[in-house]
Amino acid sequence: TIVCAKWYDRPDVIRLAEWDKGGRKTFLREVHRLMEQADIIVGHNVDGADIPWLMGDLHIEAGLPPLPPFKTVDTLKVLRRQFKSGAPFKGLDAFCQIVGIPSKTDKYDRAAMERAVTEKSAEDRQRLTDYCCGDVVATQGLFDYLRPHIKNHPALFIDGKDKLTSCHRCG
Prior knowledge:
The radius of gyration is 17 Å and the shape is globular. Helix 4 (92-99) packs across helix 6 and helix 5 crosses helix 6 (122-146). The protein is built from 6 helices and 4 strands, in the order ββαβαβαααα. The strands form 2 sheets. Strands 1-2 form a two-stranded antiparallel sheet. A two-stranded parallel ribbon has the order 3-4. By secondary structure, it is mainly alpha-helical.
C-alpha cells in the first residue's frame, strides 16, 4: 500500500502509495522501477516481510518482469546474529531507542490503514506515509550503527567525506 525509500547518499525520502495518481498499478510500476535501480536494499525484517510481499505483488499481481539481482541487508538478522540475548529488544523502534538512534515517530495502525484505503481519509494517508518515512530514517540510522557488525558488507562506493559515508572499522 505504501513504500518509502531513500538513496543512502541523498537526504530526501521517496514516498509512493497506491492512492497516488494512477492507482495501484502505477504504484507497483514505480516500486518496480525503484527496486530495479537498487544494488542494495536495506530494511528491518526486509528478507522476511517486505521483499517477499513486494515480489508477490510485483510479479503475480502486476505481471512485471523479474528484477535485476540486488543484495539485501536485513538489520533484524544482523541484530539476532550479532547480539543474540545481549540485545533482548530487536524491534526497530526498541533497539534504536536503546542505543540512542532517532527512532520511529508513530505506531502502525491497521484501522488507520483501512480508513486510508477504503474511506480515502487524507489525514490517515498522511499519518501512515509519515510513519513509513520515519521507518526509513530509523533504518538508515540502525544500518550505520550496525555496519561494523555486518559480515560481508557490500561496498558502498561513496566518497567517504564524513562519518556516515565511511566504514566504522577502517575509515
